[in-house]
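We modelled the chain as a single entity of 289 amino acids. Its sequence is:
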Amino acid sequence: MSAVEVAARPATGGVGVPFRFLRSELSLIARRRRNQAGLAVLAAVPIVIAIAVKVASPTSAGGGEGAPQFLSSISGNGLFVALAALALEIQLFLPIAVAALAGDAVAGEANVGTLRYLLTVPVHRTRLLAVKYAGIVAGAFIATATVAGTGLVAGLVLFGGGDVTLLSGTTIGMGEGLLRLLAICLYLTACLAALGAVGLFVSTLTEQPMGATIAIVMVNMLSWILGVIPQIDWLHPYLLTHWWENFGDLLRDPVAWDPVRHGLLSAAAYIVIFLSAAWARFGARDVTS
């Protein structure tokens, strides 16, 4: 059942209507071939990493200068395949996945001509934005979990598991290591949810989903580029992506909570600001498509 068909059903059942709408949105996201292809690409990266480290010589397995800090630990514990894959994909591949979802959220509906019908069924604009954003956040978590899960399986198959040596040198059990991996996935989902909020706002500005997606990716890349320019280091803490790579602090004992807390607060600020902007823009928008 499409989102339009769900919205067109009588509003009986009260609270059940938004949940039916959300289920329809999630189903629509899952059925899109481009999203399925994107997940396949995300899942392929940790597999390639695991195989590359497995066949590499011991002297090159560490990855050389500038390699992610987790890469050299893969041969000792397969869990680090998931962490290395997340470190590599968080800069571009995962943001592209979120950008595709966000760009399609409103602009995609306008492009295929269903947005106007959705709003005349009627579906309240605030509810529509909330459902669209919930779909983006769910997609961000699924993408992150796909990378982590595939990396974990590939790593355990090729390298095995066992105790996990943290970045601080402390050793913990595999069970606690898996919990920390889950915490990292949730942290990165929160970071990507901030990008999703920016993307939802951009999606309300146009009726071309591809244009919206490209704009969101450019915002992401601009943030990364500005973050490596030392002359504007005063700006770095306010950049969208500045705190994303601090997920490694969840692998210390004790956990370095300050960078993680700052990252979550930064994500929350972006979410509040850009969801408010999306609501203001969409609420006043004259929908003709």
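As a brief sanity check on the tokenised model: DSSP finds eleven helices and two strands in the chain. The beta strands are 164-165, 171-172.
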